[in-house]
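#dry-run=false #mode=assembly
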Amino acid sequence: MDALNNLGQGFSVAFDPMNLLFVFIGVVIGTAIGVLPGLGPTATIALLLPITYTMDPVGAVIMLAGIYYGSMYGGTITSVLLRLPGEAASVVTTFDGYQMTKQGRAGTALGISAIGSFIGGTVAIVGLTFLAPLLSKVAVAVGPAGYVAIMILGLFLVTSLGTGSTVKSLFMAGVGLLLSTVGQDPVTGTARFTFGQTSLLGGLDFVAIAMGLFGVGELLHSLERSEKGQAVTTKIKNIWPSRKDFKDSSGAIARGSVLGFFIGVLPGGGGVISSLASYAMEKRRAKDPSRFGKGAIEGVAGPETANNASSTSAFIPLLVLGIPSNVVLALIYGALLLHGITPGPQLINDHPNVFWGVVASMYIGNLMLIILNIPLVGVFIQMLRVRAGILSTFALLVVMVGVFSINNNPFDMWVVLVFGVLGWVMIKAHFDPGPLVLAFILGPILEKSFRQTMLISEGSFGIFASDPVSAAIFILIGLFILYGFITRSRRRQGTRRAAAAGPEESNTLVHAPAALSNSIRQKDKGAP
Amino acid sequence: MKNALRLQITAGLALASLALASCGANGSGTARNAGSDYPAKPVTILMPYAAGGPSDLTARSVAACLGDSLGEAFVVENKPGGSGAVAMQELASAKPDGQTLALGTTGTLVMAPLVNSLSYSLADVEPIGVMADNPTLIVVGTDSPYKDAAELFEAARADPGAITMGVPGATSPAAIELQRLKNDYGVEVTAVPASGNAEMTTNLLGGHVDALFINDHPDVQARIADGSFLPFAATTPERLGWLPDIPTLAELGFPDLVNATSIYGLFGPKGLPDAVVSTLERELETCLGDPKVVAQIGKNFVPKEFIGADELGANFAQIKALYEPILGR
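#status=ok
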């Protein structure tokens, strides 16, 4: 019952009027940037980091955390209404959410997302409150060999779920891995592929590449279209889902909460992977998988629940171990360090106000968000009435300022522009930049962990079998491949037996709807 | 009309030359009294690392104090691009007028130019003084089978390369000290580079490496205090004041391994006027005596005795001489 006492103390911190204000500011900014497709939580938090220097540490983290989980709510809105994911984790919501909008069920899709997000978020906070100390022991067991396995699992998921064409996503992932080798060798420190450019010594900046491919590429592409695209004409009605909707999605919400929570705890997990995993899980469990991609409510409820649960549970490795599991949390880590607080096992003891205050503020923030989202969704989407041209110009300005502010280096602005043009070419050629960007993030961790593993094992591959975490994950990957192989060959037999040659069904496990290739490129400009 | 125009031009020229002349006068004035009216404008301190780390905290704390005492703002500008090389290159190519300074480390000023072909080297910068130094420790986890450093190194001698030790980066001083341990003393320990203390800590707590060669940041001190890390050795020339029972590597039979301390030095571009160097040196020394600055940086990290320009320059030159045969190409 220690946790309850501490939580009570946390609430007394969170109910401080200033801190209440910071929760509110955080979740409102979060929802707004989630709605606006040009800005993600990473760029926003990066831009606001200097401001938090003048704030009290508890208030600073409360606000930044609010922006992060608030953006998970906000990102849903444009995914559902416009098939434009406001941030990366909402990409899969476009598959069925936008279809629901086309069927006139936009209100229901938004309603169930908000409810799912609230439940997922709350489950994860409860988990954070009670399981954090316990989970820290499990997470420490993940060593370099385990990291290698997690990264390979990540790449496997990215290429198999990424787009209709596995060959194209493998190619894109390969390019991403190659780009990630630019810079210093992680073991010898020598320069690789820098062509004598000092600015390349630290590698290409992830945010610059992501902003270029997703942000500028999409802006260039939008110049070819008419200006009508962004205006929301959909009438939002029936936000509160019907009893049948609740019945259909309750399982997805329950599974999404648990799945999202555990994926968020994994280093490198969080947002995107959790929503992709939840979507894949719901589709596999469904009695009639062909409904997915055509407006299945489970396909909206599950991923939206999972991404909120994971964005909350991702705080566990940060606050308990001092390990930021993604870029957003790395920025929050930086904010804590600015105040001389080093996140780690000592944080709960040394700074109980920070830990319990932030945890308590999350309960309040989630409550605020569901209040903001259900009745006020109409207000937020009014922001999209701004003409696409104005929004794009503003977005480009924010992108350029944002990318400059990260390293104060004009070189990164050129990287954004070059990758913007590349992104536009890729859109035209129907290559999905999603796997490229994800492989670019995972590549350095994979390489470093692999080389650490080889140093530790003195060059023996046996360590991948003897390390329990990596063994378990490799068995899981093997099972995935086997399962995909079996279903494919079974289907082939089925098609052979069936005399009538119909259009071939897509593989239930590994094929996400082709809409992903379209929509993933529009996802969050800069968030993990 | 023509006349009026000519008059205007003449007047314009006269004004311009007057302005130029007064500039010239000002200019020579600055050069003559460089020490006394320095700084006349806000000064930029380039930071080769991202905001938030201990080096950033040091630079910000010193910058605030220098700004107060010298009457002009000292602005810290983070330029983490190119693993710090971008900031150092900018420093090396800046005008030596004292308006651009930087936080420099052995990593950015000695090792990076040795390992890579860069357009700057240690010769292009002017040392001013040490802002903070951050010693390095060898620590193990609580379930370590070794009871002290002697046993750990005995195990390394018995089975070369079997002992793994986490280090903060491939070209970190710690990694190079382990290389020197092998080259000069024949004791082979496998260095496992990680990015930063947090990752190293997880590797040790999870039992993935045998020991760490880690910078003594507050998080490490907290873990030593709560018993999850056991300190085995200090890598400084003398024992550390706050860990008086922990032997140094020198005492353990490796007398030359005393160079792993991270130094956060204040540097300017080569050719900085002596008067500016001595002004900054003097004010830096005063700032490091200010209890507020000491509290911000951490009292263990402010050198007990101020290390000025000459000593800092000599120290970096010595480290360069030691590391050149190991890293140079």
